[in-house]
Amino acid sequence: MAQKHSTSSRQQEKAGAAYKQQGLVTTATATSTVAVQDDMDSDRQRIDSMFPDSASLEGIEVVADNMRRRLGSVHETMRTLLRAQSDNNSSNQQQQQSMESTRIAIDDLYQRISEMRAKARTSERTVLDITQDIKALDFAKRNLTQTTTAMRRLQMLIAAVRQLRQLKMQKRWGEAATVVSAITGLSEGFSGYEQVRPVSSLLSSARELQKDTAIQAATFVERGFDTQGLLTGEVGQMRNACECVQAAGAMDRVVGFYCTLQLRAYAAIFQLDDDVSQLENVSRRYAWLRRILQNHAEMHASVFPDSWKVAEQLSRRFAEATRDQLSELLATREKVNADQLLAALADTLAFETQCNKKFGIVANNSDGLTVYEGSGEQAVSFVGGISCAFEPYMAIFVRGEQAKFAALVTQAQSAPVADDDPSLSVLASSTDLLYQFRESLRQCAALSTGQAMYDLAVVFGQSLSSYARNVLIQGLPQTPHLDDLKHVCLVINTADYCASVAAQLESKIIERIDKTYADRVSFAPCRDALLGAINAGIRVLVAAVENMCEPAFGALAQGPWHTLQTVGDQSAYVSMIASAVDAATLSVRRHVSGSRYLRSYCDKLAVRLCEKYSAAIMANRNHQGEISEVGAEQLLLDAQALKSVLLAVPAIGAEEDKKVQPPNTYARIVTQG
User: Fold this and answer.
1) CA–CA dist 49, 626 (Å, integer)
2) Strand 361-363 vs strand 370-372: parallel, antiparallel, or unpaired?
3) pLDDT-based confidence at 323, cuts 50/70/90?
């Protein structure tokens, strides 16, 4: 058995030596070989464990068969690994060949790209050289074109200057106008050649020639009118001369001459000390200009180009002269009549409005500017051109209106009040005063929307405050009774009406007045005065009820409450108070127009009657001593009846469908009083 064991060991060693002689051990097969060697070591250990002694060798044949099968399996594994190793070596060689081919292709591609980049640089330099040549040719062409154009224009300018000299000498103004325009256009083309001496000299000569031509053409036009402003020249030639002047840009001289000539008679006719120049004759000034404009349209308009707007320029110069004369006239007058001032101002404003209409000047609603109708070009309005001379003297108008309002207030103080008219809800004097306010505002708005309108607004407020103090409050009765209630209600209604109209006037004035004054307009002081009149009227209403209830409170203060033996129905004084309150409240409801004033009346009445009731009881205690228990019970019964009377006050005289519970505030005043 030991011999067989040694034989098996030698076979295994030979097999291991055979494996080592293969020479194919690589990184991949080394792992597999190590695994096989481990298996062999394991088998050796297993044999030693299986045959530890000689007795165990009886089953060696079986074990040997198993080992042979095991060895065959190992050989098969070895063959598989060898074939795999061979395949891996072949694949690695193919990959290396592919990598080498890829590297060679990349090198070739890089070489081609480098060659293309070099060719691109060469092409770029070539194109740049060609472009520079083309630019140089373009510059040369442009310079040549500009030089040719400049030479051609220079020749044309020289010819035009020569031609203009001849036309000027021959006074052929129509052709001269065309040549002047041509010289102006040609000269603009030499704006960059001032440093070239010949060109600069030629341009200076051309400008001087244009100037001389314009002066000569303007002189020709001026000589076409005599000293009286009448046309003596030939219209066609004068029109051509005007066109020549316009081409040279010297039309202001001709327009100025013509306007001065036409207005020369104006200064002579309307001298400061003459009657025709006085304020009451201001309309004659405007009539004179209308005749001048009519004569211009019929006789002179064809001489001037339409674009000169000679009639408008003539009207503007007339407006300037008239404004200066009127300012001087008003400044030298010791006293200016307000009616004459307003009449003159009204005529002036009408004239200014007519001028705007005649020359197509309208207000642009988008931005508030004045423009020419149709063209949309900005224009200067005639309104204010002459009327501004009246502005410093509008205080005369304001003072006149103030005196008028003061007279109305004084008249209202002494005028009897017609209380018997059932249709009368406010005092007639208030409607007269407010009507005058509206008329004054309308008149002032047509004359001035500046300082004068602000001053007039101040006068309105002062007059309303004076009316509230001197007419409404002073007109209230000192000891009112039932017959006075209607008048007191009229006072309250009038104050409320005036306050509402004052708010409307304030809004209208702020809307119309200049922006610089709008923030300063306020009728708050006069509204406070009118509110004071309303409160005073309500107090008088309450005082009237107090006076009517005075006998009842007198009976309460003198009643035998300290000796009363039995408690009966409500006392007579309660019925007296109820009757007085009912009659007064019915009259107040019938004549007071504002429900809020009726509520105020009820609140104040409840407070005052509760105070009077408490004061009467205290007076009784002070004069007759402590009230007995029976008397206290009777007074408690009367107090409940009086509270019922007072709680019914807000509904007295109201329609059946409008009778509601008294307001919570009023009910609290009654119950806590």
Assistant:
1) 142
2) antiparallel
3) very high
In the prediction, which pLDDT does 313 show? 93
DSSP 8-state symbol, 361: E
CA dist., res. 531 & res. 550, Å (int): 28
Of 319, 305, 302, nearest to 361 by C-alpha is 319
**Is residue 471 pLDDT above 80, yes or no?**
yes
Helices (H), 448-594: 451-467, 485-512, 515-518, 524-558, 572-591
Lowest mean pLDDT among 415-429, 473-487, 602-616: 415-429
542 close to 604: Cβ distance less than 8 angstroms: yes
Residue 72 has a CB neighbour count (10 Å cut-off) of: 10
Quick: pLDDT tens for 207-221. 888 889 889 999 999
Angle value at C-alpha 211, between 205 and 215, nearest 5 degrees:
145
Other CB atoms within 10 A of residue 544 CB: 24
Question: Do the Cβ atoms of 398 and 452 come closer than 8 Å?
Answer: yes
pTM above threshold 0.70: no
Average pLDDT over residues 358-367: 78
The per-residue pLDDT of the chain, averaged, comes to 83
pLDDT score of 319? 93
What percent of the chain is modeled with pLDDT above 90? 26
Choose among 388, 513, 385, 396: nearest CA to 450: 513
Measured CA to CA, the distance from residue 160 to residue 544 in angstroms comes to 104
Q: Are 495 and 537 in contact (CB under 8 A)?
A: yes
Round the CA-based radius of gyration of the chain to a whole number and report it: 61
User: Cβ contacts of residue 246 below 8 Å, gap of 6+?
Assistant: 177, 305, 307, 308
What counts of helices (H) and strands (E) characterise the chain? 20, 2
Q: What are the Cα distances from residue 328, in Å, to 7, 143, 273, 278, 324? A: 159, 66, 11, 11, 6
Average pLDDT of the residues in 69-86: 80
Alpha carbon 626 to chain centroid, angstroms: 76
| Length of the chain counted residue by residue | 673
Q: Which of 183-187, 303-307, 654-658 has the highest mean pLDDT?
A: 303-307
Q: What is the largest CA-CA distance in the chain?
A: 176
Asked if 641 and 577 count as a contact pair (C-beta separation under 8 A), the reply is no
DSSP helix/strand/coil, 497: helix
CB 288 within 8 A of CB 269: yes
- As given in the structure block, the two tokens for residue 470 are 């001197």
Question: How far is the C-alpha of 249 from the C-alpha of 529, rounded, in Å?
Answer: 66
Percent of the chain exceeding pLDDT 70 equals 87
Give phi and psi for 278, each to the nearest 5. Answer: -70, 170
Burial class of 93 by CB neighbour count within 10 A (0 to 12, 13 to 18, 19+): exposed
Say yes or no to pLDDT of 135 above 90.
no
Distance from C-alpha of 176 to C-alpha of 240, rounded to nearest angstrom:
9
37-56 mean pLDDT:
63
Write out 79-93 in H/E/C secondary structure: HHHHHHHHHHHHHHH
Whole-number Å distance between alpha carbons of 74 and 96? 33
d(CA 88, CA 569): 137
* pLDDT given at position 15: 40
| pLDDT: which is higher, 185 or 285 | 285
Backbone angles phi, psi at 378, to 5 degrees: -65, 140
Which conformational region is residue 664 in: left (phi greater than 0), alpha (psi within -120 to 50 degrees), or beta? alpha
Listed residue (343, 320, 324) closest to 332, CA to CA: 324
Token pair of 357 as six digits: 């209409």
Distance CA 213, CA 177 (A): 9
Q: Which two tokens mark 562?
A: 């300290």
